[in-house]
Amino acid sequence: MTVELAAPQPLSATWTRRHLLDLEELSRPEIEIILDTTERFTDPTHKRRKKYTDLRGRIVVNLFFEPSTRTRTSFGLAARRLSADTLDFTPGGSSLSKGETFIDTAKNIEAMGVDVVVVRHSSPGAPHLLARHLQCSVVNAGDGAHEHPTQGLLDIFTIRQHKKRLEGLTVGLVGDIAHSRVARSNIHGLLKFGAKVIVCGPPTLVPPTLSQLGVEISHRLDDILPRCDVINMLRIQFERQRSGLFPSIHEYARLFGLDSERLRRAKPDILLLAPGPINRGVELTPEVADGPHSAILQQVTNGLAVRMAILYLLCGQPAGETHPLAG
Ligand code: CP
Prior knowledge:
Layout lengths: L1 E4 L22 H14 L7 E4 L6 E6 L5 H12 L3 E5 L12 H9 L5 E6 L4 H8 L3 E7 L5 H15 L6 E5 L6 H12 L3 E5 L15 E3 L2 H4 L5 E4 L15 H8 L3 H4 L7 E3 L12 H4 L6 H20 L12
Parallel strand pairs: 1-2, 3-4, 3-5, 5-6, 7-8, 7-10, 8-9, 10-11
Bound molecules: phosphoric acid mono(formamide)ester.
The site of phosphoric acid mono(formamide)ester has 11 residues, from helix 2.
């Protein structure tokens, strides 16, 4: 059943940003506004397809220069759930092949009346560049190894949903930290809420400079596992690695993969996350990925609500008027 709904009830704080570029720049209260707005878009029953009217007349465009399953489809679905019109730009077959620049491409698409550009790009800072050249809102859907703020938000939302708190939790980020924009967004977000963050992986995949952000560094999963309340298993990003950074996949899986045997060392209520896609049998064995501790598909479900919240906060109110969520 589809129902049309008015805006969620007012929140006590205000959102003033035009763009969502990274979690590093957001304050804790700003992240709390997003998480609380996400809560209002979450449908715990999954029985009703709620349709909101807040973005009626708005246009949201997906501008993805890298592959995506979860982020791209959930932004499209989120925009449609809010009654926006959507465009899906794909570089293949576009005039980029004739030499048109990234910025000219975006400006031409914006000229069709677009309100929000959701951009994924292999170059760190590409969304920030667009934000300087476009008048519309820009959302970072992943920029190289820099940040993936909506993934970080949905991870934090899922942790809060399961653990009812963030402060004082120990969260392990395991795997290819060096190439992971998800790791950076998790670190910036979680530290603002008083969680302890441990990054763990082979020395070649864990930049030692990360300790300057206030995280603990470990190269032994078996050592940190008993201390963690949450483990976020990050994918080995074979496509971003220029040379072999560990002896073999088998060796990596033996030392840093999570299987049922290793999971016995963890706390009984450990929460297991993975941003996806997962390399089954490398980071996680199938019985662990699909097992009782896993919230991997719950993350995807929450991702839709997070992206609805972001679009709603960025352009869900008439221009010049007080935001409907403002207290
Ligand atoms: N987690 C994530 O960003 O997945 P996609 O690459 O499929 O969007």
